[in-house]
Each structure stands twice: as C-alpha cells, then as structure tokens.
Amino acid sequence: MRSLFSRNETLVALIIVAFCVVTAIVEPRFLTITTITDLLRNGIVIGIFAIAAMLVLVSGGIDVSFTAIAAFSMYSATKLMIALGVGDQIIVAFLVAAAIGLTLGLINAVFIGTLKLPTLIVTLGTLTAFRGFLLTFVGSQLITNVPPGMRDFARSMIFRGETPGGSFVAVPTATLFLVGAVVLTWFILNRTVLGRSIVAMGGSRESAARVGINVTAMQYFVYGYVGVLSGLAGIVHASLARVANPFDLVGLELQVIAAVVLGGARLTGGHGTITGTLLGVTLIVLINNSLIMLGIPSTWQNVVIGFLILLGTGMPAWQARRRAAASA
Amino acid sequence: MKKIVGISSLAVAVAFGAATLAGVAVAQEKLDIPTVVKISGIQWFNRMEEGVKKYAAESGHNAFQVGPAKADAQLQVQILEDMIAQKVDAITVVPFSPEALEPVLQKARDQGIKVVAHEASSIQNVDYDIEAFKNEDFGAQLMDRLAACMGEEGEYAVFVGSLTSKTHNQWVDGAIARQKEAYPKMTLVGSKNETYDDQQQAYAKAQEVMRAFPNVKGFQGSASTDVAGIGLAIEERGLEAQTCVAGTSLPSIAGQYLETDAVDAIGFWDPADAAIVMNKVAATLIEGGKIEDGANLGVPGYEAIKLDGKVIYGEAYKLVDKTNMKDFPF
User: Fold this and answer.
1) Which residue of A has its CA nearest to B213?
2) Looking at chain A, which runs of residues are DSSP E strands?
3) Pairwise CA distance, residues B272 & B252, whole Å
C-alpha cells in the first residue's frame, strides 16, 4: 500500500483527478464527451513522442532532436509523395518517413554509440543541424495542399458521433498509431532481452557492459527506434493538421520531456514506465487544453503549466529524499 | 549611374565643355533600384518580385529583387553592403529586424543613396517607410466582415500570435473598438488567445473556446496560420454554417478552409503593390520630387496616402472570400 502511494504514477493520477474535479466545479461543461475526444486528438502526437523520449531516458540518455527528425521526415516524405505522383498512397508516406527517421536516428547513434559523445550535446546539435538542412535544402514553404491519401487518413475515424448541440465528435484512426507505439514499446521493454538490456544499460552502463551486453548495439537500436517513431508521428501530425509545415513541431521537445519526467522517468536513467509516461502526457495535454475553461488569462497559462510541472516532478523527488533519510 | 556619370564627366574633361553630353546621359540613364527582402523563395516575396518586375517593365529602370536564402538580419546586412558597393541609386528594403539594419542604412544614406523601407514604421535611417494601412483600421475592416457574417450579433473570440506581437494586438484592438462602437449586440468572450503563430495551437485553442463557450459564433485570427487552425477545428465539428471566421491570412494558407466555408473572410495586403509603391517613391526622390500628404501614387490602395513623419500609410487592404480568392495566387 505504501509503495503504491509513494509511486509517481499514483501522484500524477491524483493530480489529474484533482485538476479535473476543480475544472468541473468551475465549469460544469468540462464533463462532456467532446472534452475527451478533443484531449485524445491533441494527445496523439505528443503521446508518440513521449513514448520515444521515455525509452531514451530509460536507456540512460536524453534526446531532444526527435521533433526535428519528425519535421524532417514528415516534410520530405510529403514532398516526395507529391513528386512521385503517389499522393493517394498513405502507406508510401509512412514508409518513407519511417526510413528517413531511422536514418536520422542512426546518425545520432553514430555520435552517441560509436564516438561515445554525451547524448544531450549530440542531440542538441543534430536538432539544429537537421532543421537547418531541412529548411535550406529540402524546402521552407508550407504545403497546404497535402496529398489526398493524408487527407483521407485524417478524415477516417474509429468512432463518430454527434452531441446534443449538433456538433460532431470523433476519434480519428490516427489514434491507433499511439496505441501501436504503446503496445510495441511495452512489449520490447518488458518482454524481451533487448528491453531488459536497455534498462540495465540505463541503470549502469559499466555493469551492463561487464555482464556482456553490447552497449553500442543497444544505443543504435534505441536511437533508430526513436527515429522511426518520430517519422511516423510527423506524418500523423501533418495529416491531422492538413498541412506539411517544415517549421512545425520543433519546440515541442521540452514539453514532451516534461511529460515523461512527470510520469516518473528519471533523467539519470534506468527508470521509466509506459503507464507513468501516459499519465504525464495526460496531465500536460489536460492542462494545455483546460486553462481557457478555467478562465485563466493567456499571460498566466505558462506560469500555471510551469508550476504544475514543478509540483509533479518535485513531490516525488522530495518524497524519495524523505524515504532515504528515514531508512538511514 | 554614378559609374556612368564618372565616365561621362571624364568625357566632359576630354571633350572640353561638352557639358550637355553628361546631361543627356543622365536623362536617359536607367536607375538601379534593388528591392532587398527578408527571405527569398517564399510565396509572399515571390509575389513581391512580380511587382518589382512589373515596375521595371513599366518604368524602364533596372529594378530587381534580392534576398537571403534564410531570414537572418546579418545576411540581409551583407546584401545591403553589396548594393552600396555596387553604387546603386536607391535601395528599397523589407527589413527582417529594423534595429539591425540602422547602421548599414545610415551608411547608404551617407553616400547619397535613397532608402525606402516597408513594414518598418519604427525605422530611423530611411527617407520613407511604406505601410499598406493603419493597423487599427485594418482590424476594424476585419471586424466589419465578421459582423456581417454573424448578422451583427452573438459571441466572438479573438486570437493573436502572442501578446507581444505589436501588429496582431493593434489589429485585434482595432477590431474590438469597432465592435463596441458599431455592433452593440456582439460580445467578446474570453481574453486574447495566444497561438504562438502555430496552427496546432490555434486549432486546440479554438476547440477549447468552443467547449467553454458553446454559443460562440465568431472568431478573429491574427497570425496567418490562426484561421487555418480555427477552420480545421470548425470543420471537424461540422459547424461551418453556424460559425464565422475572419482574420489575417493568405489564400495559399487558408484557401482550403475558405472553399468549405469554415473560414469566411481573410484580409492581407498585396506585396506586389507595396513593391511598386516603394520603387515609385524611390524614383521620385532620385528625380528630386517630393512626397506629400494626400498624394496619389498611382497604385490601387495608395491613391490618397497619409503621411505621418517618415511613414506613408495607404489603404491597401485586400479582403478576400471564396468568390475572389483565385485573384490572389500567393
């Protein structure tokens, strides 16, 4: 029981519930189906990113370049799709974006795994480099006329309904990508030797190497996997937004990492769960999409978000220290 | 021209007293007038280049457009240095950062080059700055469109890129002032919503505004991506017919939403016209002419300009809906 309460997941879940209760009291209209579908829709891309970022944190690194990878893959794939005249084949967009994402992820891996450079420095560098290359050599114009395949994908729904007020509510098919990323990553982390090796490497790189784990290979896998997920997330984003904007996505990375850390993943590596990450994402998306309802003016919204992140990450850290002091 | 004048004066020196020759050479001379833009290759400045080319064809002067490959004040300074070295007759410029260009523009003016800027009403080292319109008036025009669509009643919300974007806030303040004065049955709901010039933010905020204020009927956007984000949210809700959206944007960005009525009117100014005006003002100054309040510059929207210090204001709003969006392919 005690361990349940001292866990990050529980804390974040409690904050989420408290936040919902307060919002519902202030604005009863919060409790509608539309709120749920809106939040889900806005959580897809940030959710996929968070799963990827969580895996890197677990492996003992940190990646801030995934948004640039996503923008690069998304924009290049969309452009290629139009150039090849295969605009109605959404599968092409996903395959190309995944391949580009993989390539860029492996570029990170070369610096991190082979040249053994610090992950934050490498990915800060590649964040800027990938983005610069994209804007200089691939293009800097918005593609507002996205290929029909992407438009159809955005319009396909798992569930569609109508509210009493006469407006539509829907859950887009794109949600399945988040579900897929969650299931696959959970399986890898918890049911494969590969996943357990990644956790071990994150806990202690030295010990992991001594028990015979090929640390370099693990890093290639982690950054390649993150690249693929980012590429796919990019296409999902562009499809849902119905615009391929090369300036998009970059800037989201800190919010994503905040969500992951809120969910209990440690910047020092070796710790992080899917449940925690999803709770962290839920909290961030919930806050981002409820402050108008709470009547909080625009200027204060960032202050509130910052404070909640401090609360969410500070409480567990403080508890952990108290526990350590008690056991000493 | 200076080079030619130099050669001509040499000729004068050689030919003793052939002063009229130099005079004839100047009168027939083509003026070199570059238009230095923030960035090359984007639709906005491609459209501006059309204006520059049109002016060059009509006037016979050597007017041309140059700009850096990416929006960077330092690169723009380098291009301006190049132009000064080439001894052009005038420079027209759309500054990326007005403050960063002050020293190089001062250098140009010290060498007798006329300087005309656009979209930089605070800039000092220019002869004139051209503004397509007064921002408050433009905001009021958008409000008129929004009000007409809403039947002059109901709740509306306003969006800005950020509370620190000066022009966005002037547009929205102008719109709100217009609503208070002319449309008493309309009410503003919520505060100014910030979108950080990000379509996804505009989309999410529009969704939330619709949840928080279910009766909201109108939306006014400011960043060019605002109305696209709002339009997407409205389309997904299936509320195209019940809601009205007006804002600053371009047909290339908002076109697909204008077609479905998710967005009802967009406003902007035509960069091609602004380029022609900049060039005309520059040529007038070189030829020793003056720009006066109320003057007609011979370009639509600039027929009766207002002069405020160094700033020339036109009334060059373009308000576009789905019936005439095809006239503005940018």
Assistant:
1) A293
2) 157-162, 168-172
3) 16
What CATH architecture does domain B31-133+271-316 belong to? 3-Layer(aba) Sandwich (3.40)
Nearest CB among A135, A144, A295 relative to B70 is that of A135
Query: What value of ipTM does the predicted structure carry?
Result: 0.89
Domain boundaries, chain B: 31-133+271-316, 135-268
How do the domains of chain A map onto residue ranges? 1-23+252-317, 43-249
Q: What does CATH list as the number for B135-268? A: 3.40.50.2300
In angstroms, the Cα distances linking B277 to B55, B284, B325 are: 9, 10, 23
- In tens digits, chain B (330 residues) has pLDDT values of 445 544 544 444 444 444 444 444 444 478 999 999 998 877 889 899 999 999 999 999 999 999 987 778 899 999 999 999 999 999 999 998 889 999 999 999 999 999 999 998 889 999 999 999 999 999 999 999 999 999 999 999 999 998 888 889 999 999 999 999 999 999 999 999 999 889 999 999 999 999 999 999 999 999 999 999 999 999 999 999 999 999 999 999 999 999 999 999 999 999 999 999 999 999 999 999 999 999 999 999 999 999 999 999 999 999 999 999 999 988
Chain A residues with CB under 8 Å of B70 CB are 135-136, 140
Interchain CB distance below 8 Å, A241 and B208: no
Residue-by-residue DSSP string for A5-59: HHSHHHHHHHHHHHHHHHHHHH-GGGSSHHHHHHHHHHHHHHHHHHHHHHHHHHT
